[in-house]
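Bumping my old thread because nobody answered last time. Still need a sequence for this structure:
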């Protein structure tokens, strides 16, 4: 594996070989260096992991190493869109919209000259407005002279 143009695997192998061949290094230093080389090897191996060669989910892939599968990758050769013969539908313009807003041209954005008004281009937007309505029902209570109460029934 290479990191920043350094072949890490080759560097680790060279360090192991030099450490093995060196006789003058104290054994405690040698053991410490071998431990550090092992830790570096484990970290480098972890850098190579992604969702395609381990059990980690694709969302945990390192940034820039996301593996995206497209239709080409899957071998599917279909055109996008609906099936042949499918009758599409669109909203039709209505004759009496609830409101009409006229949008004027900002004459500062067009070249200087004399212009004649020749009409409008129109587009309709269908908005669905959802509103909250709270209704409080108050049932009348009547009481007779004996103290008995009568309450109207709620709908």
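Sorry it took so long. Here it is:
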């Amino acid at each position: 594996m290479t990191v920043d143009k350094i072949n890490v695997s080759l560097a680790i192998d060279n360090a192991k070989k030099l450490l093995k061949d060196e006789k003058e290094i104290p054994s405690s230093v040698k053991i410490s260096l071998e431990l550090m080389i092992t830790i570096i090897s484990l970290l480098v191996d972890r850098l190579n992991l992604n969702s395609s060669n381990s059990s980690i989910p694709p969302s945990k892939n390192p940034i820039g190493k996301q593996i995206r599968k497209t239709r080409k990758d899957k071998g599917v050769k279909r055109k996008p869109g609906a099936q042949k013969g499918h009758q599409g539908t669109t909203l039709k313009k209505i004759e009496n919209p609830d409101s009409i807003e006229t949008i004027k041209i900002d004459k500062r954005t067009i070249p200087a000259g004399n212009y004649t008004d020749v009409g409008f281009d129109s587009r309709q937007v269908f908005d669905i407005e959802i509103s909250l309505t709270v209704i409080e029902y108050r049932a009348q209570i009547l009481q007779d002279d004996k103290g008995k109460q009568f309450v109207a029934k709620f709908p």
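The mean pLDDT is 81. Let me know if any region looks off to you.
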